[in-house]
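User: I'm new to structure prediction. If I give you an amino acid sequence, what do you actually give back? Let's try with this one:
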Amino acid sequence: MTRGMADKRKLKSKRMILIFLASIVGGGFVWAFITAWLITTYSEQASTRISDAAIILGAAVVGNEPSPVFRERIEHAILLYHQGAVSQLLFTGGAGSVEQRSEAEVGRDYAIAHGVNPADIQLETQSRITEENFKYSIGVGEQAGFHTYTIVSDPLHMKRAMMLASGLGMDVVPSPTLTTAYQTWRSKLPFLLRETILYMGYVCKGWIDNPQQP
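Assistant: Good question. You get back a string of structure tokens that encode the predicted 3D arrangement of the chain. For your 214 residues, that looks like this:
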């Protein structure tokens, strides 16, 4: 084999590698775009089913007050409660530190102040992330006799939330907030990017954990 032929083969190999890498990167961008589009379109899905309880996903609190994002979720759950779409509210979310009150406790107090019967409220105060919101709520719900749930969260959060809850075997339907603190694309875009990355990550995790599933 001449030196020229060897150089040509090396160049061809490098090109094939670059094409392969470019295909992976390009495919990743296409997948991300499709995922973001699916998340955005799913944000408009809202079920009218009557469930045993609304499960309100926690968000930040400031002292004894819910953040604007959390307040939107609480008020939407209160609306469902007063409309009779749910008979109980299950607030989720732990505390950031020992000195702070849990998100669930702050949500409960806000709901009681706005006409919800304290006897119709359940709390889950251990979780830190969305997956834990559902994981720790299962036991609370079982003890309270809940079988069906309506998930309350921000519209762009709903697709991933539904995926996580369904993956844990929960009977859930979506009910995104009618309004959201993420009102401009300057605030929506980072949230959408985050949800897209996390959703794709959970999909990949599912493929790894269950390689036989399509």
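You can read the tokens as a compact description of the fold. Here is one thing that stands out. Residues 36 and 183 are 17 Å apart (CA to CA).
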